[in-house]
Amino acid sequence: MSKASVVLGCFYGDEGKGRTTDYLGQFSDVSVRASGGNNAGHTIKVNGVKFAMRLIPSGILSNKTIAIIGNGVVLNPAVLLGEIDMLKSHDIDVDRFLKISDKAHVIFPYHANLDVMLENKRVHKIGTTKNGIGPAYCDKYERCGLRVGDMYRDDFESVLRQMVATKNELLAANNEPTCDVEEIVATYMEYAAKLKPYVCDTVTLLHKYLKEDKNMVVEGAQATLLDIDFGSYPYVTSSNPTIGGILTGTGLSVRDIGDVYGVIKAYSSRVGEGPYVTELCDEVGDRIRDLGHEYGTVTGRPRRCGWLDLVALKYAIDINGVNYINLNHLDTIGQFDIFKACVAYDVNGVETQDFSTNEEFLRTAKPVYKEFKGNFGDISACRTFEELPADAQDYIRFIEEYTGTFVKLIGTGADRECMIVREQ
Ligand code: IMP
After folding, report:
1. Whose CA is nearest to atom 16 of ligand 1?
2. With a 6 A CB cut-off, is 39 part of the ligand 1 pocket?
3. What is the dihedral sign for C-alpha 92, 94, 96, 101?
4. How far apart are CA 213 and CA 3, in angstroms?
5. Active-site annotation holds for 14
6. Does 167 score more than 70 pLDDT?
7. Is the CB of 250 under 6 A from ligand 1?
8. How many C-beta atoms surround the C-beta of residue 289 within 10 A?
9. 412 CA → ligand 1 middle, Å
10. I need a surface site. Which of 83, 150, 315, 355 has the fewest CB within 10 A?
11. Amino acid 23: pLDDT
């Protein structure tokens, strides 16, 4: 029986999980998405074509890998159908490879309206993507959410009408735009019909695939410090992008998990509000943003940028059981003469390597940095660790010693082939 490899972000998202997934995709028969919705987005270049993926696991791009949207995902059918059409226009055999969990919750237009309303009312803004992700998960836990499978029940139309009426009351009471019930009913009946061929019980399917010894990769969305439990609450997303969410979002068990890849950049970034210990609000941060092209895939927002935070990385490794690190953007950081990484926090004069997502702790903590020599030159052609400049090797070795975790994959440039794969 095979085990599933898992790919997770270690910081605030946008670490380049797509690179790892793409690499593992070469060997995988099945790729799975466990949580989040179309707040996620990554761009993958295959044979010179750029694919912007929001919901469908990127493994499908190989045109030989089954792509499963798990039960933990909140699914916007309009976005999904757009993605299906886009993939079909590139001759990806979506009808053959896509499977959607009947238990995934459906996002409706009122969720986006509520997202905007709630964000406007917040004293401490989160900076959500306004895609209705939080309100859809709220409905899930309030147990009034509609799941993909519900769209095929005889009473779907009447339940939906009632739901839109209830949400409209709430929106109207807050002077927010309401939704057109007839339009929603008509479009969602159409969406339901279009999605039907892909819908199934993915939980039993996943276990069947493992028993058949199929290679499986679970593609994480968002990242550890955006986790609703283990992230910098309340400045987080509304799901569990950490290892626990991988299990509850797919139906896989602890026994089924193999390697856990933690993805980081050689620096760090964050979109949206919330504490960020190593943030650089100066021209150095601007330079990282420019060199790393750090602008949101989904919202286009400029990302906040800073040095790599090894204290937070150790936390992410512990939370998720990471056994391999994938470090991206080594080429980007190598353009600095000197760059830094945070090796401890100074909290009111006391130095610590312990991490906490307690907001006051994160706002008080001052980074203690270690400097590294940059100027790596063009490393995009390096295919082995030994080909990297000595200073680049030293940086990687330091990360390994600090975290006790092997850096298996190293991104050395934007193109797919610019990656070093190391054997332990
Ligand atoms: P929401 O997920 O739209 O509710 O947004 C909550 C917070 O998570 C905001 O700060 C978003 O910017 C952030 N966020 C959500 N998804 C991603 C992602 O895929 N990458 C980076 N940040 C994200």
Report:
1. 39
2. yes
3. positive
4. 8
5. yes
6. yes
7. no
8. 18
9. 26
10. 150
11. 87
